[in-house]
Amino acid sequence: MEYQVPQFIEVEDKIVGPLSLKQFIYLAGGAGFAVLTFFYLPFLLWVIVAAPVVALALALAFYKMNGKPFIEILEAAFSYYISGKLFLWRKEAKPEAKLNRPAVESPDAPHGGASRGGPRLTRGKLHDLAWSLDVKKESGEK
Description:
Layout: E1 14-16, E2 19-20, H1 21-40, H2 43-62, E3 64-65, E4 68-69, H3 70-82, H4 96-99, H5 123-141
Helix pairs in contact: 1-2
Protein name: PrgI family protein
Region (Disordered): 99-125
Pfam family, one: PrgI
C-alpha cells in the first residue's frame, strides 16, 4: 500500500489571495490600528503614531532576516534583553605584591628555571647561569 508523503511542509498555505494567514493577520492589524487612530487623532499626530505601527506590520508580514521570519528575530531579541547574562570570565587587576613575588622553582626544572610569569633574566643572572653551565660541562668531561 502506498501513502502520499507531504513534500513542502515548510511552505505556508496561501489562504487570502497571495498572503498566508499570518501575513493577513499582521497586515489587517496594522491597517485596523491606522484606521482607528485616523479618526481619533489630528493628522500630524496620526502620521507620527501610525507610521511605526504600519512599518512593524509590514516587517512582520514580509521581512525575513537570514531566512527567518521577523517575528522570530523580535522574540530572540526580547528574550536576550530580558534574560540574565552569565559572565564566565572577568579580567581583574593583580595586586602589586603578587607581581613582584619571586618565582617558585620546581625541582624537575633544569637549572632552577623560573615559571613563565616569574622574574626576567637580567644580564648578571644570565652571566651566572652561563658560568654554571660552563663549570658543570667542564667538570662532567673529566
